[in-house]
Amino acid sequence: MTGFHGFGEYAVDFYDGLVADNSKSYWDANKATYDTDVVAPMKAMLAELEPEFGEFGAGKVFRPYRDVRFAKDKRPYKDHCGAVFEAGRGAGAYYVEVGPDGLRVGGGCFHLESDQLARFRTAVAEEIHGEPFRRILSKLERQGWTVRGDRLRTAPRGYAKDHPRIELLQYRSVYAVRVWEPDDTLHERGCLTRVRDAWRQVRVFNEWARDRVGMTERAR
Questions:
Q1: What are the pLDDT digits (tens) for 114-126?
Q2: Torsions phi, psi of 161, nearest 5?
Q3: Which among 171, 29, 43, 199 is positioned nearest to 111, based on CA atoms?
Q4: pLDDT in tens, 56-107
Q5: Selecting from 3.40.718.10, 3.40.50.1240, 3.30.930.20, 3.30.479.10, what CATH number does the domain 11-212 have?
Q6: By the 8 A CB rule, do 14 and 27 touch?
Q7: Can you give the pTM of this predicted structure?
Q8: CB 70, CB 53: distance < 8 Å
Q9: Cross-strand pairs, 174
Q10: Which of 25, 41, 66, 131 has its Cβ near the most Cβ atoms within 10 Å?
């Protein structure tokens, strides 16, 4: 049976177990569940959503392995499965994640390189672009989204502390997220509708990021 019909019955149980035992032995013993109940449905979801959201790039399922080279936390595996449509980091993204907390969706500027951050602040500072952006975030919050991001504690260099959008200028990354706790819909086709409807709401944020921030010109 092709297409997306929900995440598998044991998708959340798999991650509950991984949180309790983040070890290679647990991973190896339960990888079949990860493959069938988590990754296969995630790929099927991306395939169905690509005609509408693929303009931001090809769908990508993130690797399950953590980069622990410079981390104090040496747990080898991520405690969720994330996937994204994005043209490039910072220029807008459609994100979806399944894990022990249920379903998480997001959009916006998850990471900004220095050139992108400069363009972001220039746009926010200008009335013609900054006020529409404020209204975008306010509407998302009224619709049930949470706006998050890394922020300075004071005004960024070159901007007055009393700027009318200083709270937005302080962001070094900014994005919106919504979370649904584990429920029956996670395992049904209705989960696809939930993600599609949420991404449609966050589309205007992503389009603003694409048009006002754009791709980084710095080499990764």
A1: 999 999 999 999 9
A2: -65, -25
A3: 171
A4: 888 999 999 988 787 788 889 999 999 999 877 778 999 999 999 999 999 9
A5: 3.30.930.20
A6: no
A7: 0.93
A8: no
A9: 109
A10: 41
